[in-house]
Amino acid sequence: MTSRTQLQSVLAALMAGSVLTVPQCVAARDDKQIVLDFPAQSLEQSLRDLAMASGRTVLADAGVVAGHTAPAVHGSFTVSEALAMLLANTSLVGVEVGDAYAVRAADQMGKRASDQNEILVTGTRIRGAAPAGASVIAIDRDAIEKSGRATTQDLIAALPQNFGGGPNESVGAFTQRNGASSNIGYGSSINLRGLGTTSTLTLLDGNRIALGSNATYLDTSLIPASAIERIEVLADGASAIYGSDAVAGVVNVRLRRNFEGAETSLRTGMADGFTEFQASQIFGKKWSTGHVMAAYEYYERGRLGAEDRTYATEDLRRYGGPDYRQSYANPGTIIAADGSVYGIPAGQDGRNLTPAQLLAGVHNLGDGRVGTDVLPRTRRHAGVVALEQEISPALTLRLQGFAADRKSENRYFSLNSSISVPTANPFYVDPIGTGQPVTVMYDFKKDLGSPLDKSHVTNWAVSGSLEARLGAWRAEAYVGHGVEHEELRSDNLVNRAALVGALADTDSATAFNIFGDGSHTSAATIDKVRGWAITRGRSRQTTAGLKFDGPLFALPGGPLSLATGFEYRTEATGSSYVDDYYSLAPVAYGDNGYPLARKVYAAYGELRAPLIGPDQGIGGIRRLDLSVAARMEHYSDFGTTTNPKVGLTYEPVEGLALRGAYGTSFRAPSFSDTRQGPGYSQIAAIPVSDTLSPTGSSYVVGLFGNNPNIGPERARTLTAGFDMRPTSVPGLSFSATWFDVSYRDRIFNPGVDAFTFLAHRDRYSTLIFANPSPALVASYYADPTFYNPYNVPASAVTYVIDGRNANLARSHLNGVDFDFGYRKAVENGAIAVGVSGTWLFHLTQQFTATAPKVEAIGTVGNPVRYRLRGRASFDRNGFGVAAFVNHTAGYNNTGVTPAEPVASWTTVDLTLSKSFGAEAGAIAGTRLSLSVTNLFDRDPPYVNNRTPYSAAGFDPEQASAVGRLVAVQLVKSW
Q1: Which of 382-391, 540-549, 763-772, 792-801 has the lowest average pLDDT?
Q2: How far apart are the first and last CA of the chain?
Q3: Which of 270, 341, 493, 909 has the fewest Cβ atoms within 10 Å of its own Cβ atom?
Q4: β-strand pairing of 639-653 with 656-667
Q5: Domain extents in the chain
Q6: DSSP codes joined into one string, 604-657
Q7: 493 class by beta-carbon count within 10 Å (0-12 exposed, 13-18 middle, 19+ buried)
Q8: What is the torsion angle, in degrees rounded to the nearest 10, for the CA atoms of residue 208, residue 214, residue 216 and residue 218?
């Protein structure tokens, strides 16, 4: 008997009545993605179209499917995923039998539904249905492969809705805004709408895992891109569904859980200044009652040094900007007892230097960016395992594990301060002959090497669930636990206490020589003054829950469905800090346990009501769906909050859906918002622009970092939009979503504008304190977190400014997301074009309850007015070409006075690929691709990017310094 005859015999036993069959050539695996563009139509026609598009056999009893209408399906899916969507609002299920599928009534022969009939879409707890009133943005496997991007953080960075500010590996050395300086693990976060990384909830296959940087964000750079099936983005408040972190939205990274077979991938890329390499392996196996998937990925990238990017400098004169180089140089600059300045001459070793050789009135300037990195060198191992096993027809066990290990190394700029040299130093030179100590401004990099940050991050998470099928209902108990460890070791620091002793040493063989050009101190002495510091952070998270979902009763448009459940979560974080650069012996700070912890109890419910369906024939209302959700959470440290959400989707005619949603959101302050101490709070003496000062600037002591009085945030979100897929033009789609987010008590970092506090006194009046007492200033100068990069004397300080995190009165954001696309099938292939983007109307901020509203859209440290990503692709007979155009609007640099315009930035990405089918023999199942990101090697636009400690000529929050990256990839399916 042939396999086809056997299959039909089995199906005949499963079904009664006439059988509708659509036989096609049999495909090898179900994990293959196919691009579908089906309108809403009869279920019978959609099943025929699915069979034709996939090359799989789909059989159904004509009497069973008669009278059913299938929804529109657009995008890339596996056959089982597409079948689940077509059957989502029916009482039918799909059964995989051999290499074919059968559609039957759910109660026939007591068989369970196909796995994919239980798909959960991000934004809802109800299975098999999209969230009413919401729009989910998806990056599927096909889009991942065409993008030419190697890492998960790069995929997210291309999203127009994402803002690059916050903790990211490329940002921390160039700004302290948006919490970037607390990123001890050199991880990468997601920042939807620019509302903050802590306001975006990131999930891995629907699960929370331990967060990095003191439990503030999920590090997307740890997730292996080769194991991702798709990334779903709900850019809307979703606290009613997921909890308090989902203020700006939810990003759910879904793994290739249903992969079958084996796939090996090798990728190498090269840009000016560095190379990268990626290797991955994924395995999958299915059997009659379950399946397993395991994936591993290795990624390595070299460092990108400042010497390879001309704009990574403090001297911006070549761009028409100022020279921010400071007098910390080698050779250095001497400040005599009377304040007069003398440059140390070049070309001498400091052993025979005389006052006559000094350069009167000369400041030797040093570029703090020399010998530093724009991007760190990094190596990462990551792996995932997912297992599903049917224990009985009514009980299924699911287990998942994730582990990642990353090491990074980054050359950092020096946090310099002036050095007092006593007269006993054997190399001492007195420019004015007073015999008093002199002050030297000196760069130690030639002696110690560049300050070097070495980070090590490990993250592991396990989760499991047990699901019981109770007729049409599902009950699920689940538990998860995850831990992240971070360590940052900083080497080549100056041990101030040891340096004092080495400068006071009277022996020329062992004293520190600070008066030469280059390094002229003994290696043994240099080792004595070489300091270090170690910061360790760890977070852990445990989640447990119980969920029920299923239909309650029939409504005209379909079943009224309910999802309800209870969750318990514990979060904890701890850190320790040891430094060996302030005293002769290492000093430990912080703790070694988990002193900061909280417990969260939650209960939620969600209803989906299809009020009107197409079969009712009501004029002007083809379909009307309503969803209502609410979640109550109790925090052991912040009290109780309840957040509702209501969504509505209205289809007046086939091919047009109107939708809207309202909800409230809540976010408790993260541990990093409140933790105090080194690394979390900083004090600096700096000059700032002052319109009331005769010199145009004043010296201030600035308070930066965390504030112990931080409280919770609350927000209200509104969305309204439409999805249009006209039946008269198959393949055409257009969607748009208007959003409006109103924050109150939002946690914000006003230090982003520290240099303009005095220029905008009305805006920052409550954060400015004039004429501080000498005792207060002295206490700041004595604080262990105090830095004085500009050598400001305490007597010159006339203001204290508070740039720490604060619960500001209100922040209001609104704008529009949109996507336009067209896809047309051609012989043995398809052509597609489209553009997506986000256009922001307003981002107003009130820094205090009485302060005026300030428009922040298109200003430094905030999202730009609009971002666009255009796309075009062509696939035929295994050959593919895909091109992308990325555009970031120009904006204003308000970090300097007067504000300066920043140009827009446009880059082009290109990917060429060739896939070999069965006819290719030994290379069957092979895919070769060549990708070029930033094809025309466009530099980031010039930005006068001044920070309290350094400067640069670009803004890494808005543009990448990578430049043109050319990569070749080989993928082999086995």
Answers
A1: 763-772
A2: 28
A3: 270
A4: antiparallel
A5: 3-118
A6: EEEEEEEEE-GGG--TT-SEEEEEEEEEEEEETTTEEEEEEEEEEEEEEETTEE
A7: buried
A8: -50
Question: What's the pLDDT tens digit per position in 650-689?
Answer: 999 989 999 999 999 988 877 767 666 666 678 999 999 9
Closest CA to 369 of 410, 313, 329, 309: 313
Considering the entire predicted model, what is its pTM? 0.82
Q: What is the pLDDT of residues 611-655, one digit of tens each?
A: 998 888 788 899 999 999 999 999 887 788 999 999 999 999 989
Backbone dihedral angles phi then psi of residue 720, each to the nearest 5 degrees: -150, 140
The SS3 assignment for 448 reads helix
SS (H, E, C) 919-969: HHHHHCCEEEEEEEECCCCCCCCCCCEECCCCEECCCCCCCCCCCCEEEEE
Report the C-alpha dihedral over residues 212, 218, 220, 223, rounded to 10 degrees.
90
E strands in 471-557: 473-494, 530-555
pLDDT digits (tens, 9 = 90+) for 73-95: 777 677 877 888 788 777 677 77
CB 718 within 8 A of CB 817: no
pLDDT value for 113 = 34
Rama region for 249: left / alpha / beta (φ>0; ψ in -120 to 50; rest): left
Q: Are 121 and 131 in contact (CB under 8 A)?
A: yes
Instruction: Write down the CATH number for the domain with range 3-118.
Output: 3.55.50.30
Give exposure, 873-900, as e/b (b: 16+ Cβ within 10 Å).
Answer: bebeebebebbbebbbbebbbbbbbeeb
Maximum distance among all alpha carbons in the chain?
111
User: 592: Cβ–Cβ under 8 A, 6 or more apart, which residues?
Assistant: 574, 576
Residue 907 has pLDDT above 60, yes or no: yes
Cβ burial, residue 372 (10 Å; 0-12/13-18/19+): buried
Amino acid letter for position 316: L
- Could you tell me whether strands 249-255 and 274-287 are parallel, antiparallel, or unpaired per DSSP bridges? unpaired
Q: Give the helix ranges, DSSP H, for 472-519.
A: 496-504
Closest CA to 320 of 957, 888, 943: 943
Of 293-302, 586-595, 783-792, 878-887, which gets the smallest average pLDDT? 586-595
